[in-house]
Write a structure and sequence with these properties.
Elements lengths: L18 E4 L4 E4 L2 E2 H7 L2 H10 L5 H12 L8 H6 L7 H12 L11 H26 L13 H10 L5 H13 L7 H10 L5 H12 L7 H19 L3 H14 L20 H16 L3 H18 L8 H12 L6 H22 L25
Antiparallel strand pairs: 1-2, 2-3
Helix pairs in contact: 1-8, 2-16, 5-6, 5-10, 6-7, 6-16, 7-8, 8-15, 8-16, 9-10, 9-16, 10-16, 11-12, 11-15, 12-14, 13-14, 13-15
The structure holds acetyl coenzyme *A (ACO).
Length: about 400
């Protein structure tokens, strides 16, 4: 008997050893380690090793793995020209999706899907993605492109290429923590997309390109940009009314909630799996408060906190709580990142999760092929053109 689950809710479609989610209790673990412990103690490089090997590295292994990532920051062939040829007003997520797809053109063996070669490709794409994002941003600002530095970590090198100067240790740590928190999250939409694509024995480039396309949507990773837009909109609305922002938050949110059956959404809230606060949001809430205070953005944090309070009162009982995107908007803004780079930042980290899932899929593959309930007519007449 086939059952129909709209949006595949509740359907188990894969097995993974990478991340575990308990949506009722608000638990997220990578290979059994609570996300909070990783955010406090680990680095992005170590987290990727953990996800791809299902264990923490020994010291020498981490040194070697980090060196492998650092040696691959450079883009291949004339890729620089490709970036410089891109329209300056293009949206960064469209640039990233196109660029990751284009990387396959420089690979003499793009189709290989044996696990060791797929891992090599994953490592290359993971290391090259920050260069693509930083270089496109420099290009659109009319600034010279900054060569990657293999003496810097994944997080430090990205901020260095983006801003043209070495970031402070505090900024590097803040960004590194965001990368850890976004690395993997069960069979979310973009990860499912990647696994579906690789299950045809297509290739790593196609799988990751498709996943980037999925992540961009405002119901998924695109929500972090929408959260920032909402905060900006509230500020602009208050200015227009000549009122303090704190006075307009409540009517703004209540108006959106009143229209939720028409599809209005408070971005950064709600989740298919979590029915309590997303543990990544719990961490980011405290973290964003600190970083917002350090960088003079406390007002944004306070606005977010007020929105959370109203949402808990109004729809908390329905299980609608902040998700990872809600406080990551304030965090990224405080680090000085531009709004339309928020989702590319998410992608830079999640490539590790997508690629890890592709490797799991390749190691024990079965083609994804669900069914659809046909709800159209049967035995319909073919009406000749002149009688329609
Ligand atoms: N604002 C207002 N109401 C909401 C919200 C929200 N953000 N999220 C859910 N609801 C309400 C719906 O109106 C609906 O109410 P009803 O039962 O009275 O009709 C109920 O909660 C269920 O909502 P669905 O959209 O059916 O839940 P679903 O599991 O399909 O969607 C989703 C989950 C897409 C994340 C949704 O909560 C949403 O649109 N949130 C805003 C976008 C967002 O923040 N996305 C990022 C998710 S995290 C990530 O992908 C990285």
């Amino acid at each position: 008997m086939s059952t129909f689950a709209k949006g595949l809710e509740g359907v188990v479609a894969a097995e993974t050893r990478m991340s575990f989610i308990d949506g009722e209790k608000g638990i997220l673990e990578y290979v059994g380690i609570p996300i909070d412990a990783l955010a406090r103690n680990s680095t992005f490089e170590e987290t990727v090793f953990l996800l791809w090997n299902c264990r923490l590295p020994k010291k020498a292994e981490l040194v070697d793995f980090s060196a492998q990532i650092r040696s691959r920051y450079a883009l291949p062939g004339d890729f620089r020209k490709r970036i410089l040829d891109m329209p300056k007003d293009a949206q960064p997520m469209h640039v990233l999706r196109t660029a990751v797809s284009s990387l396959s053109l420089y690979d003499p063996n793009p189709n290989a899907t044996d696990v060791p070669t797929a891992r090599e490709k994953a490592l290359n794409i993971l290391a090259q993605t920050p260069t693509i994002v930083a270089w496109f941003d420099r290009h659109r600002r009319g600034l010279p492109l900054v060569e990657p530095r293999s003496d810097l970590s994944f997080a430090a090198n990205f901020l260095y290429m983006l801003n043209g100067k070495e970031p402070t240790p505090a900024m590097v740590r803040a960004f590194d923590i965001c990368m850890i928190l976004h690395a993997d999250h069960g069979l979310n939409n973009s990860t499912f997309t990647a696994r579906v694509i690789i299950s045809t024995l297509s290739d790593m480039y196609s799988a990751l390109t498709g996943a980037i396309g999925s992540l961009r949507g405002p119901l998924h990773g695109g929500a972090n940009e929408e959260v920032m837009e909402m905060l900006n909109e509230i500020e602009a609305f208050a200015k227009q009314q000549g009122k303090d922002t704190s006075a307009v938050i409540e009517p703004y949110i209540m108006d959106k909630l009143a229209r939720r059956h028409e599809g209005a959404r408070i971005m950064g809230f709600g989740h298919r799996v979590y029915k309590t606060i997303d543990p990544r949001a719990t961490f980011l809430k405290t973290f964003s408060k600190q970083i917002a205070a350090d960088t003079g953005n406390l007002k944004l944090y306070e606005m977010s906190s007020k929105i959370e309070e109203i949402m808990a009162r109004e729809v908390g009982a329905k299980g609608i709580y902040p998700n990872v995107d809600f406080y990551s908007a304030t965090t990224y803004h405080s680090i000085g990142l531009k709004l339309d780079l928020f989702t590319p930042m998410f992608a830079m980290s999640r490539i590790s999760g997508w690629a890890g899932h592709c490797i799991e899929q390749l190691a024990d593959n079965r083609l994804f092929r669900p069914k659809a309930n046909y709800i159209g007519p049967h035995e319909a007449p073919y009406v000749p053109m002149d009688q329609r």
